[in-house]
Amino acid sequence: MPDVMGALGRLVLGRPTREFAPRAKPRPLRIRYALPLLAPDALSSVAYAPDEILLTLAAAGLVGVSLSPWVGLAIAAVMAVVIASYRQTIREYPDGGGDYAVAKENLGLAAGGLVGGAAMVDSLLTVAVSVSCGAQYLAAVIPPIEDHTKAVAIGLVAVIMLASLRGLKALDNTVILAVYAFIAALGLTALAGGVEFLTGSLGAAPAEGLELVPSSGFTTGLTALGGAFLALRAFSSGAVALAGVQTISTGVQAFRDPKARNATRSLAFLGLACAGLLIGTLLLADQVGAVFVADPSSQLRYADGRPVPADFHQDPIWAQIAETVFAAAPPVYVIVIALVGLLLILAASSAFRWVPALMSMLAQDEFLPKQFFRRSDRRVAAHGTVTLGIGSAALIWLMGASVTRLIQLYIVGVFLSFTISQLGMLRHWNVQLPLAKTALERRRMVFSRAVNAVGLALTTVALAIVVVTKFTHGAWISLGLVGLAFWMMVSIRRHYRRVDSELKLPRGSRADLGLPSRVHGIVLVSAMNRATARALAYARATRPASLEALTVAVDSARVWELRRAWDRANVPVTLRVLDSPRREITRPLIDHITALRRRSPRDMVVLYIPEKVVRHWWERWLHNRSAARLTSRLRHLPGVVVATVPWQLDQPGDTGGPEPTSGGAK
Amino acid sequence: MPDVMGALGRLVLGRPTREFAPRAKPRPLRIRYALPLLAPDALSSVAYAPDEILLTLAAAGLVGVSLSPWVGLAIAAVMAVVIASYRQTIREYPDGGGDYAVAKENLGLAAGGLVGGAAMVDSLLTVAVSVSCGAQYLAAVIPPIEDHTKAVAIGLVAVIMLASLRGLKALDNTVILAVYAFIAALGLTALAGGVEFLTGSLGAAPAEGLELVPSSGFTTGLTALGGAFLALRAFSSGAVALAGVQTISTGVQAFRDPKARNATRSLAFLGLACAGLLIGTLLLADQVGAVFVADPSSQLRYADGRPVPADFHQDPIWAQIAETVFAAAPPVYVIVIALVGLLLILAASSAFRWVPALMSMLAQDEFLPKQFFRRSDRRVAAHGTVTLGIGSAALIWLMGASVTRLIQLYIVGVFLSFTISQLGMLRHWNVQLPLAKTALERRRMVFSRAVNAVGLALTTVALAIVVVTKFTHGAWISLGLVGLAFWMMVSIRRHYRRVDSELKLPRGSRADLGLPSRVHGIVLVSAMNRATARALAYARATRPASLEALTVAVDSARVWELRRAWDRANVPVTLRVLDSPRREITRPLIDHITALRRRSPRDMVVLYIPEKVVRHWWERWLHNRSAARLTSRLRHLPGVVVATVPWQLDQPGDTGGPEPTSGGAK
């Protein structure tokens, strides 16, 4: 069957002859360019983390919501530790590779595989979460799409996927600009909000007039235990703000020398920006009275006690804040929201950017099919891109484009990687410590180890909280997906290992033993034409010990015609006709060759097949079908080599090559 | 990309190694077996023709319906002529081939192509019409499916298609039994009806109490012109009863010797049966007052003037007749209807049976891809079967499983073939006449020519009527489909012709000219293992003028390892490493080989590629991807032969073949 998928691929990607091949090592960049290229992932997660914190706390009504800045502080504290430990990762693994390299080198390949699986699942969720959230911001400025965020989100994934198939390199400058514009816009909003707050002119969010109805468990206020549990849940949801900080440790090679130093600096800056944005957002939200709940119709009511209508639409927190701060200047509001939305979409596209790198890394360790190693090969990379696109669209569809539900899945993978990576670093220091040469070096290592130990403790606790509090909310789905990815990767690696050991040359064996004693050539013939003549000429040029031409008698008239043409052309090779009462082609040939092999098992059979090479993909339906079938069957016969002799049909210019005819006329 | 479709195919069809291969020439059968096997098509069309006649005439109310026996007689007359002329076709073309052979041999290949295209479209419509009608009969005995005939019909197509993929040979005995049971059941019904009529005990159909409302054009009765036009339309709809009589002329080879004589006899018998059934049905329908209209809610009302409800359901005519005749014995009614339904479904399956034969015939004349010629090849035949299944299901879906609408499409193709075939026979006699040796022979030929001339006149008129009266009712769709099929077939043939003429050996050229001067062997290496060693051994066994091993440096660590292993194994072939700054594999190789070819254009290059042959289809994703890619690119380089040296992985037992290692240990 012709390669239908290949034809489809060509439609999207263009002809296979063009390869888009970024050099294996891209040119290193200054911090000011490299950082924004690596930042969207981390920054975007700060855009949706506040919503999740407020949403969780809103279950306990206003009392709960007032806890939000404290939850924000706790997350910022964890972030500080995590960033400190990633700075160490960068210094110790300046070649990049991030969590995967740390896990693999310190905890073994299996741990690496687990991190790799988690990273693959995270890439799906990065896209799903970012795009779903982006669709929400879009809906905040374009109300008509409010009820269609699912379709909009899936449409956005499709657009990003197609853009990635064509290559994302061209987007670099857009990304850099968008990141700076995003930071400027959010900084400006925070600044303006702060000034308004100080001057007392800060207005109230549109939701200010609404009252929060505490959920059933919290109607009598906040008990110590209930409150603690609620705060933990809010913390675990908000911890999603940490997602993406590891990106820089993977992309150290993007920085100019001194790479490690530039990367650690960038990471520190990124951490500060994220933490600042998170706390600033929560404070402003508190001041303007922004409200974000899981289920507006049951959790919100008007001041007069009426419940809000069933189709009540709530904007994301940043939209509410910006709307309040820039109440006097709606265009500024629209621009700020558009920038947030753009950053979210670029964060999704950045996942499409690093997945090929991740897959290449995994393929190098045989966790994925080897071809993914060459990520510069566009058609190989396309498989990863399409899988990512379809997978994330499926997740969006299944979760109804609900950011809240998707985040439950997302955090598991994020913290799984964090935890394994911290454990790996701890092990790293334990191994390195005895090798320390000076007391200073030793003290530094002990300190570093302490950082990672604290990091490990914090991320383990966070992971435990996430899994425990969110297991039924969807954490089981991510755990299942990570498990599936891990199983697949381990199976692939096991297969490659088995094949390698099967193919291993016995020790001390010399390659010049076991030469076949003689070569028996066979030319497969269906008609006497130039393609056949070339195959005959080539077969004869290899001077086999014996050579015969074979044809299968499917149509007696054709065989007769072939015999006549054969005699006319004076071919110095015997034509043998195989009977085929059932009009099969493959079986008589296989039988004949098997018999040959049985007669002289030390000989080798080379079967020359003339192949017509067509120019259009649909023409492949019309040629070489029997040959393709035969080839695929013959591969299972040992001692048989299939040599295809191509004849290029319908080529502009000459067909070149040694011609079987003396005249040059075509 | 691995062959996903192939894997799917294996799921449905089983492993490709099994081939279901009926002998090219099946064992000839006695009339009593051969006739029923060829009859379902013709008989089934008689099952729905009366409905269409009555439906058309009902537009003029009861006056119109009373014309039905006359229309039936006219159709029977045409049928007599058509059958007489097909008897001649059988005698003149006893090898079978039917309309296609007649058209091709007398009117040229283009006419053959047109008949072939019409036959392909007819096969789709045979299935669509038969199955839709079968679903109606099913609904007559199982009322709950009344409103789901579309889904039922498409489901039936799917079942028949899957059964065909597994092979229909096993159904032969069922078909034979079903045909005889069908004839017996309908004969019994007619007999019982006749007896009841004569004894005055014949009841009234359930529809007897209903009044026919003439359509707007016929409220004032039947004018001469209006009546004539209506009768013509009824004739052209009822002419569908002729569909299928040509089947016997295609299947002459199924009969025992004397084939032609047995076939003509069978055809005469079949014609009598069809004509008898048609007229009998119309007479009985008239007597019991069976009514069948296009739109019950506007065309039917109760005796008291109330219109029938909107969801009024009408059974097909045969169901109404059987219900009336066997009013006293409902089980007999159910059996009769079940047999009619079964025959309709077997008629659909018979299309699945003869389409591979048709495609094989068309492929022999290069109207279809050559591989279809070998219809015994199950996987090739499967393409035709699946196309037929999907195409007919699409037609059923588009036409809402409406037999009436589908028939409009069907008749065009049927009469197009009839007309071209008659024209071909006329031409045949004109050519033969001068060659007549005796006066008797001459007279016979003149008579035969007259039969065909009358046949041509009648079928041309019928075709014209069909096209004119039904153009907007759907005839344009069939004409379009036939045109499309014709265009496709002609394009394929043109492509093959062009390739043939391009490949044609110049006259007088001797095949031993143009031998390449030297052979340059290249072994593609990615690692030093047994597969590579075998490829090296095989390449050396062919003793090329020069031999080198090539590897592409994608991963420097691997190259270093390869070099070491190479030295250790003492390979007597130089290993050349090609640089690849962009980690590509294909391009450096193509460049290298192109350079080689440019240096010595009279040489031939044989590239040996070690190929790992895996056992499971999914494992193909894991191996040989670069090689497959390279092979498909290299085919475009002239003077390069690609020889794949397979290594069978993971085989039970030994891998056989001349081993590159001396020890037998695996």
Give, in spatial order, the strands making up the sheet with the most strands of chain A.
5-4-3-6-7
Which CATH class of the largest domain in chain A is shown?
A: Mainly Alpha
**Structural class determined from secondary elements of chain A:** alpha/beta
CATH architecture of the largest domain in chain A: Up-down Bundle
Unreliable residue stretches of chain A: 14-24, 653-666
User: Please, how many helices of chain A?
Assistant: 22
Strand tally of chain A: 7
Instruction: Supply the CATH superfamily name of the largest domain in chain A.
Output: Amino acid/polyamine transporter I
Integer count of domains of chain A: 2
* Pair of chains with the largest interface and how many residues each contributes: A-B, 122 and 123 residues
C-alpha geometry of chain A: elongated
Series of secondary-structure elements of chain A, N-terminal to C-terminal: HHHHHHHHHEHHHHEHHHHHEHEHEHEHE
- How much of the residues of chain A is beta strand, in percent? 5-15%
Largest sheet of chain A: 5 strands, parallel
Quaternary: homodimer
Q: What percent of residues of chain A adopt helix (DSSP H or I)?
A: 55-70%
Quote the CATH topology of the largest domain in chain A. Amino acid/polyamine transporter I
Distance between the termini of chain A: 31 Å
